[in-house]
């Protein structure tokens, strides 16, 4: 039996949308988007961000789904099936997503501790000190991180339909319900509405070159593009799943969640707190002064945890599929290798915030190194290469067939997507990438 015959797949269109939206909607939307927005001039940043999503993110997501769906293979074989000698592009994605797992799992583990601590009223006193004590400790953050990775492991060994699809069908509706409840509550508070107005009003004076860089990086990260995660999900789409339509649904859901998360956080009046501090220090503080504060805080961290879990399973699956299909391992063994590697990297990342903080490269501890290297170097490079592959390397006719299959993309829209992939993505992303590297080196 060939390896493609025994492949798993999603049961239907809804499952495909929920799983891919699960990958997209993550810490990037709820934790990162709000603070980058407030740092970069609020409404002005959102406009630029939406431009990046439409012109760069959406076409790249369509491209990645198409490569996966067309070949029904893991990221490495998918590229080399379409054009011999291009498997390295898939390998680069797998490498990058492995590095992302290294720090992403650590933050995911924190959400678990914060959800439990909020429910049991264990976060008291100085919220900044609580965060600092917890994240720089040795065992406690590691324990939660390992638990989170194990949750991933069990979902992944359940298979595509029995694990990923089932989990997405439970997690995503729950995530939407929590999000809506929190959003209604925050808009109900009068001071919330006022704070909101202030943040969403565009402040163009804060727009600089870096704003574009941040907007593009955020657009790529939030849509999980270039890393093989969306490619592998695309490869599990059932025949008849419309590639572009699914991508549009995923992008819409992802954008709605990011904007709603910003509403929730801005209305709490804490938008000027940046970085990790925003979700883990400022938010618990705000909740503590509200009636039923523990309930809101627990819901908020549950929301973050669910978003993180549905994203990390797509990262895990992208790498597991490599071991299963390319190395011929059983799903259990392949997943176990990924789980162990993720634990090792996450151990380094977690300890680098405390005990191992003195080991630094270019001034960065291991945690920031993983974050910055993937965000500043790998994401744009993979974006450029993927658009070049689909726009220039993939045979024109084959790509057209894939995108327009079963009435997918109509004759008028297809040339637009092709044009964006051939010219707009490679050129714009290259410009932003080079400027980003220069700015980063200057800032060192
Ligand atoms: N899109 C996820 C988020 O916004 C992160 C992610 C990146 C998921 C790469 C999979 C692959 O948090």
What does this structure look like?
This protein is mostly helical. It has 18 helices and no strands. It has a single domain (3-443), classed as Amino acid/polyamine transporter I, CATH 1.20.1740. The protein has helices at 13-24, 27-39, 43-71, 75-82, 87-119, 127-136, 139-157, 160-188, 190-200, 209-222, 229-235, 243-267, 276-288, 293-326, 331-351, 366-393, 396-404, 414-443. 55% of the residues are buried. The model is unreliable at 1-5 (pLDDT under 50). The site of phenylalanine has 16 residues, from helix 1, helix 2, helix 5, helix 10 and helix 14.
CATH fold name: Amino acid/polyamine transporter I
Please identify the structural class as seen in this structure: mainly alpha
The CATH architecture is Up-down Bundle
How helix-rich are the residues, as a percent range?
A: over 70%
Rounded Rg: 21 Å
Please tally the β strands and state the result: 0
Helix count from the secondary structure assignment: 18
- The percent range for strand residues is under 5%
Full CATH superfamily name: Amino acid/polyamine transporter I
First-last Cα distance? 53 Å
Write down the overall geometry.
globular
Main attributes of the structure:
444 residues; mainly alpha; Amino acid/polyamine transporter I; 18 helices; globular; disordered N terminus; binds phenylalanine
